[in-house]
Specification:
5 strands, three-stranded antiparallel beta sheet, minor pseudopilin epsh fold, globular
């Protein structure tokens, strides 16, 4: 399958935006740009989507995120979304070749579900860090402007993520029209998103993300995630998203 076909189909289903970063769009250079691009290194190569390696060892987040869960989450669940995305694109290519769109509803749904699952999981691994680094000044300023204070932003992110209905994600995103930050409750991988918004930091609250370690105590998992949150990565993505939107 050609790269152009992959790009065209993915852009049609991009409810979380920021997909230009996944596909390696031409964006401003510099240290922050490199940090953003590295978050998606290995996720798409040679015209096919791939399971990217983790940016740390499987046991690096212990005891806040256990090795066994991380291995299953990455090697089984994320891999399944990658396979589902590639399969949906292959079936769409076949449908175009035959001019037969009888399955277009199901294929479009599979594309959005698995594509968004791949993007979010790829960003999720980088949304955590074993280094516990401090929040950069630029992100702290943006949070204060958008939510009143950094603590307000963190409190809202924590509450929203814990309260996601059924399976889904908490997401800190940049909305370019108002040049502001928003916090979203994403259901499944693709529902309740805001078009044009770029995800900066995401927390997975599907049960497979935490059930081995915390059973049904989602709150304990989210509290642990907040201790692992990679704020420098979120700051780098914000800087690049603002530059792309012409806000710098």
């Amino acid at each position: 399958m050609t790269t152009s076909l992959f790009r065209r189909d993915l852009l049609k289903m991009a409810p979380l935006a920021g997909f230009g970063m996944v596909l390696g769009s031409s964006l401003p250079g510099g240290k922050s740009s490199a940090a953003v691009k590295n978050a998606f290194a290995g996720a798409y190569e040679g015209g096919t989507y791939h399971l990217p390696p983790l940016p740390y060892d499987y046991d690096a987040l212990e005891p806040l995120y256990d090795e066994r869960t991380l291995r299953i989450h990455h090697g089984k669940h994320h891999a399944a979304y990658v396979n589902g995305l590639n399969a949906a694109l292959e079936q769409l290519q076949a449908a175009r070749g035959k001019n037969d769109y009888t399955a277009i509803r199901a294929l479009s749904r599979d594309l959005a579900f698995n594509g968004s699952g791949h993007v979010l999981h790829t960003l999720f691994w980088h949304s955590m860090s074993p280094n516990r680094e401090e929040m950069p000044e630029g992100l702290a300023k943006a949070m204060t402007q958008s939510f009143g204070s950094v603590q307000n932003a963190q409190n809202q992110f924590t509450a929203a993520t814990k309260a996601v209905m059924s399976n889904g994600w908490g997401a800190l995103v940049y909305e370019p029209i108002a040049d502001t930050l928003l916090i979203l409750q994403v259901e499944r991988h693709q529902d309740l998103a805001v078009w044009g918004a770029t995800p900066l930091l995401v927390c997975d609250v599907w049960e497979h993300a935490y059930y081995l370690q915390h059973q049904n105590n989602r709150g304990a998992w989210v509290d642990n995630f907040m201790k692992l949150a990679n704020w420098p990565l979120a700051a780098a993505r914000l800087e690049q998203a603002r530059a792309t939107a012409g806000r710098q």
